[in-house]
Input
Amino acid sequence: MMSDMSEQKCAQDVDAQGAAAENSGAADKAEGAQAAEAAAAAAATDAAETERREGGASSERAEGAQAATEEKVDGATDGAAAENSGAADKAEGASSSSEASVQREGGTENASAGETSGAFESASSDAHTRNVSEMFGRMTPWYDLQNRVFSLFLDCWWRHNLVNAVVPGPTGLVIDMASGTLDVALAVIRRYPELRVCATDICEPMLRYGEEHKIRAGERSRITTMVADARHMPLPDGCADAVTMAFGIRNVRPRMEALREMHRLLVPGGRACILEFAPVSAPLFGPAYHWYLRRIMPKLAGLVSRSTSAYDYFADTIENFPKPAAFSEELREAGFAFVQHIPFTLGVANLHIAVRG
Ligand SMILES: C[S@@+](CC[C@H](N)C(=O)[O-])C[C@H]1O[C@@H](n2cnc3c(N)ncnc32)[C@H](O)[C@@H]1O
Output
């Protein structure tokens, strides 16, 4: 199955077709911008690095935080295991509420965009989080396949760029929030042999799928999975060199809580690297893309998984997500000192890099 495809195969496919797909000129522009902006980000990181080197106290703090994190992450493995089995029990016990949620979503299958959005809009943030977790839990077996097919494998290319933006630092730890089936977590440990990853998500079946189908022999010791809400992370301050999140933040409500958590978890100079979709306003392409999202993708999804409602939700969250400049403002508001964004594929996806001062 596609989802078993190794990252290498994925990268090969991407390399083979990335150029073709991106050769509209936007790729060159994005890469140029990426190089320039990455240099600026590196400068900011270097400055923070110098500050860290000069202030022995802060590097000691980082080392202390690392030790604490190692303990906490190790401890959390057991905790997560307990939590996971708890989650499984809870999932069984909660089947009736889950079914209610399925029914509600089923009821939206033929609904207009506004009605679909209403099912999630009206929920409190905790109820929303539960609904989202249950929805991803139901789509877990098809999640990777759908990602590849609907994005024409561009999702691999976008994640590849996200992982390239990570800069290893003193803690040796990266936290991948909303890790899903572990695509980013695995790409990080394969790209940076010196790093460990703590992969967190609210949806236990997604994490378990990644563990069972995608982690290779020898990689297990470098990835810890943990069921955790991005809004309330059970990890200490300043414990990570980088926090990554791919296609997760638009599901989080209120997202400012998750952005503040990212800031809290990073060492000074550490980076939050966030990949997310955005509404596309490019002339001609923008309307065509939103038509594809609304009209074609749910129908294709129905062929694969017999459920279209998740893709109505998918379109809602993209259309309601702020444009990159507005999201940059939110990152500044969350406390980040240096913020940049790099558009991919005419702005369908954007990489946001935010450096903690
Ligand atoms: C579109 S998937 C992305 C998964 C993965 N990062 C990837 O690149 O394929 C979104 C993920 O966000 C998770 N998620 C949604 N809200 C969350 C929250 N508040 N805290 C943690 N994870 C959350 C979902 O469970 C789901 O696995």
The longest strand covers residues 266-277. The longest helix spans residues 56-93. The mean pLDDT is 75.
